[in-house]
Write the structure tokens for this entry.
Amino acid sequence: MKTSDRMRALTRLAVANRVSAAYLALVGGAMAIAAAQPLFATGPDASLIWVWPALFTFPAFGFVAWLGEAAWGGDAPTWLYIGGIALSALVQSLALGSVWHSLRGRRGGRRERLSAAG
């Protein structure tokens, strides 16, 4: 299998299926709302809206948060967290796509065997 074929397969698993697309839309929507929040709210709790995208990507984002704490000691730059949310979403989308593909593959194989025997 060529490298370009592998990259296409990974991209298909991470983006081009219903489960991954829905997950990425959820995280993207949460990030868009969090980015637009300062335009509409100016209270002291306005920055807490960024908790939601982090929670939606949490298992993978936990590593990014740990890295930011270890490297910068609590004063990590904003780009690390926003980039970490995006990268964590892609990693988890790939995992969701792989699970979805394996579940559909098993179900599809079972159907073919049943129809051939029946």
User: Anything to note?
Assistant: The CA atoms of residues 54 and 85 lie 6 Å apart. The chain has five helices and no strands.
